[in-house]
Amino acid sequence: MLSLKYKPWYIKLFNVEYWPSWFFYIPVWIQHTWLAIKTKNLFFFLSTNPAIDGFILSDSKFKTLQLVPEAYRPKMLFVNTTVSDSELFESMKSANINFPIILKPDIGFRGLKVSKIDNIDMLKAALTDLRVDYIIQEYIEAPLEVGIFYYRYPNEIKGHIPSVTVKAFLKITGDGNHSLAELVYQNPRALLQKDILCKKFSKIWNSVIPKGVVLTLEEIGNHNRGTKFINGNDLVDDALLEVFDNLSHSMKEFYFGRFDIKVASIEALKKEGDYKILEVNGVGGEPTHIYDSNTSVFKAWKDLCFTWRVAAKIAAINFEKGIEKPTYRKARAKWDLYASYKTKLYS
Questions:
Q1: Is Ligase one of the keywords (predicted)?
Q2: What are φ and ψ of residue 299, in 5° steps?
Q3: Does 161 lie in the same domain as 262?
Q4: Is residue 265 part of a domain?
Q5: pLDDT tens track for 146-180
Q6: Could you tell me how far CA 312 lies from the centroid of its own chain?
Q7: What is the dihedral of CA 262, 267, 272, 273, to 10 degrees?
């Protein structure tokens, strides 16, 4: 019988990183009233990054990534749901995109329906469960994935990096005595993913993993898929900041958000051109270091509120420059489109 500390409800209750996402935003919502008064606009956040369309979480991942110079982007395709399998495979061939690939909804949420696909059969199976426009992206073989949150005020040359998150993918190491299932049940982080892992590794679920063999259980770098988020704010220095200052200046009307990046090392990241940006998340992007297991809820609240104050200040500067203030009608239209898309995504 599992001890109490290995019960899923216990793990979630006594580890802040697993608390519901809405809980982290309670003070942000309260603060929003004040920020709306300051900016004289309830939907100011829609103008923080004028180059990005959509509501808070409804921006197109494909379109947003096109803001990034091609040298820093993986090879990728935007695919409409009307495209047939044969047309898709031909497009992949033309774009020189080979397996393995990453399949993801164009507008996603916390890794939902994002998959690493190793072959055509897996791709066909995954597409039967996807009823929205999606992205095919080459899989980047690099040992390190990081989330870099960056912002720059439109009237300033240099920006700031308030958050660096190092992602540790979910892995187990065999001991030669226990099966994969037993090892998963002994690992609190893996235990929360047991239903998915049981299905994914059904062929070896009850097999003993040889001593010293390291098995990567999840290759998608999302917290709710078992990836451990580690606060890497101590990695910020002038060299790292210069990389993102230069990057932001190459991205028209982008001032605020998180870059999810695959790279060989932090030092390699500081050498421009030696990394690939998997995603760019705008105003809906979080400073994901707040999900480090050592971060208190009060620190998370403080950091989230700070980033939203920055978003409001950037929007206010954009308003002064002549960027149109979002109306209720415009915001509602964006929200309705997102709600419709989300319904299809969850169906």
A1: yes
A2: -65, -40
A3: yes
A4: yes
A5: 999 999 999 999 999 999 999 999 999 999 999 99
A6: 22
A7: -40
